[in-house]
Design a protein that fits this description.
single chain, about 150 residues, 5-stranded mixed sheet, 6 helices, hydrolase, protein phosphatase, Dual-sp_phosphatase_cat-dom
């Protein structure tokens, strides 16, 4: 657990609840905003970082896709202030399924890549990612329906 969040893009990091609780690590990475994709992990440093919470459970019944655009917009807004050094941490409980799903949706839309390519890209950086089967289906549908560019 000692490893930190991983860099997906120069301004986008993927991690776990544990990572989100370490203020020193977040500050050392230049994190200014945190996208919390869980209902169980607290926003540890309200007032210090900009937070957005997406209360999704990690199970096959959850519809995470209804949050894709809001999450992508949040990352994009934080990215647009990256000239001032802004970086975003996307995390869930374990940094394996929900937060990885959001990062994949962001890549599919912002980089105009296919799910398979986005998945390989993120997997190379954080080998433990494993979005649940239902989330993968929702990502595939997001890709197929043509993420709004």
């Amino acid at each position: 657990m000692g490893d930190g969040p991983v860099e997906i893009l120069p301004f986008l990091y993927l991690g776990s609840c544990y990572h989100s609780s370490n203020k020193e690590v977040l500050e050392s990475l230049g994190i200014t905003a945190v996208l919390n994709v869980s209902s169980s992990c607290p926003n540890y440093f309200e007032g210090h970082f900009l937070y957005k919470s997406i209360p999704v459970e990690d199970n096959h019944m959850a519809d995470i896709s209804v949050w894709f655009q809001e999450a992508i917009d949040f990352i994009g807004e934080c990215h647009s202030v990256k000239a001032s050094g802004g970086h975003v941490l996307v995390h869930c409980q374990a940094g394996i399924s929900r937060s990885a799903t959001i990062c994949l949706a962001y890549l599919i839309q912002s980089r105009r890549v296919r799910l398979e390519e986005a998945f390989d890209f993120v997997k190379q950086r954080r080998g433990v990612i494993s979005p649940n089967f239902s989330f993968m289906g929702q990502l595939l549908q997001f890709e197929t329906e043509g993420a709004k560019h």
